[in-house]
């Protein structure tokens, strides 16, 4: 009850002598500090809105324009060509310290200067948007840059010379265009050719022709209308229909994971690692809120970062009957913590300041030292977020809509993020490093199926031996966004915050801090655990050290194309054929862009795989074809998102398309993704070469397929994450001889 008493600012009693007020100055001080912090945030947001609203100009440029106009007028010249006099005639100003006429002239000049300044800003923003709409630079060969691209780079650098905030470029990014339907259908048929026999391809061509000449044009008109109205014609439908409307478990099927450093663990003390990790995440949130992070760039071009602030923190996916909903809260001053079947609420701010890493470590240690047993039904409560969505919705409505259960559930869902203090040890060390890495990956992907909160935007896992990792919900953002967060967290933890010689966090401790709060529950029965789904997953992490992108680039081949063609060769040798291959590509060159599919299995890659002779020439052709497919996907000319949106329109119109139905039902037996390294400047690999990340992975998309994620680390290493299902007798994640030979 101590927390309840502290929450009351004052008490009063009525006596014969009057009203006796008993003020709690500590509580009033907390209210005051909380208000000050809130107003500081509002002021910061307002200031940033002004700065990014006038970008690429600066607010101070207004004064320059005013001075220039007044100086020109002082020289008895009219730079406005009569507009200042016209404005002066409509000003109802009669008196002024400078005299009626002079005062009106000065005010008219200020009005004209402001309008001129705003016009210049709009012109600069329009020019910046035109420059960011130019994508031909992506299709030019390395070392053969056209004069047009050289001029474009110069102009872009001139307009971007002023230091931008995180979101300064957002409104200048172009909208995602709708590709011509003829081009999309043609590219689809080309991608499908190596997977179909001659009769099958002839039949698919006839279906495509009928669709293009009849229903396709009608659907295309609706899609173009949406593109004119919406910021991005794909992203909202993709989020809703691909993610939020899925009624199956999101554990394994949707959520993905990120791993710790491969070779080192900064500290073996679990509470200390949790203290620094939580602090680093909250510092990242502060930088996002203040827009202090650098805009994310692809070479010299900034990409969309709209997902960074919208739902990264304080966000939870809540279940529904037909569709889930992403709930986001403006701010949260606590995190939810799980340890040995108990849930805690840990406040990370006090008196308006963020707790020090040492104080958070102290609070985490209190949780670790708490020996109280779980309440009935509490230990496996997280399994509700791991299973089917509809039963979770009905259970939520029945048992978590009011009372103590609702208050405790709100504490988890409103938390900045979720933290699991795992009672197991993970990592590569031990007698079986390869097997240990595989178990580490499986643990991050699903854990015990009840010791993660899979609905949270992301959950942090801190193991008993100090190893860490995360599990991220997929609907709110894609892996590059979470990877950016995780890169910052690992680098800040190891290189900025650091540890004392005995492995503890740095900083002082206020030992008067109230203990973390146990969440109370009244749960009538145990929650069923989706253990079968987790047991079916076969994960393998494969650090490849023979060579990396350094040697690949010497061959003048894209590292990504090299890996993708290698995967085609490995799959062919493993399964004796080819399959539809998914590779995720970003479309963040456009506003609110997310991903597009690179259909990596092409005529050229299949020709290389089948060839016995002339392999080098065919490999070159296959890699060039793959790079072109990747560039088309990034610049809005991909296949699958366009076809997906056409299919959604057909469903709204209540019409059937055999072509679209067949295309969208094709299984992705090889689903691949590269985890980009975006902030190498944060890692001092020269002095600390062992501090390299393992990247992350995901579950297989098809029951009889593979999920392959890879990260290209430095010049000499590539880390692979391979997943499949034990229930399929034809797939196995551990490397076969075919893969090793590749």
Topology of this structure?
Elements: H1 2-6, E1 10-15, E2 18-23, H2 25-53, H3 61-74, H4 83-89, H5 100-132, H6 147-159, H7 181-192, H8 198-213, H9 215-229, H10 235-244, E3 256-259, H11 270-290, E4 297-298, E5 301-302, H12 306-310, E6 315-318, E7 325-328, E8 334-339, E9 342-347, E10 349-350, E11 353-354, H13 357-369, H14 389-399, H15 403-413, E12 418-421, H16 433-446, E13 458-462, E14 468-472, H17 479-497, E15 517-518, H18 531-535, E16 537-544, H19 549-554, H20 559-575, E17 581-586, E18 595-599, H21 603-610, H22 615-634, H23 640-653, H24 658-664, E19 670-674, E20 696-698, E21 706-713, E22 717-725, H25 737-741
Parallel strand pairs: 8-12, 12-13, 17-19, 19-21
Antiparallel strand pairs: 1-2, 3-14, 3-20, 4-5, 6-7, 8-9, 9-15, 10-11, 13-14, 16-22, 17-18, 21-22
Helix content: 40-55%
Q: List the domain count as a whole number.
A: 4
**Overall geometric form:** globular
What is the CATH level 1 assignment of the largest domain?
Alpha Beta
Strand content: 5-15%
Give the low-confidence spans.
1-10, 737-742
Describe this structure in words.
- Keywords: Acyltransferase, Fatty acid metabolism, Lipid metabolism, Membrane, Mitochondrion, Transferase, Transmembrane, Transmembrane helix, Transport.
- One of its GO terms (molecular function) is carnitine O-palmitoyltransferase activity.
- It is a multi-pass membrane protein.
- The active site is at residue 474.
- The chain crosses the membrane at residues 50-75.
- There is one protein chain.
- The chain is of the alpha+beta class and 742 residues long.
- The chain folds into four domains: 2-53; 183-246 and 638-666, Fumarase C, Chain B, domain 1; 252-535, Chloramphenicol Acetyltransferase; 537-635 and 667-742, Chloramphenicol Acetyltransferase, CATH 3.30.559.10.
- The strands form six sheets. An eight-stranded mixed beta sheet has the order 15-9-8-12-13-14-3-20, sandwiched between helices. Strands 16-22-21-19-17-18 form a six-stranded mixed beta sheet. It has a two-stranded antiparallel ribbon with strand order 1-2.
- A hairpin with a 5-residue loop joins strand 13 (458-462) and strand 14 (468-472).
- Helix 11 (270-290) crosses helix 13 (357-369) and helix 21 (603-610) runs antiparallel to helix 22.
- The longest helix has 33 residues, at 100-132.
- The chain is globular.
- It starts with a helix and ends with a helix.
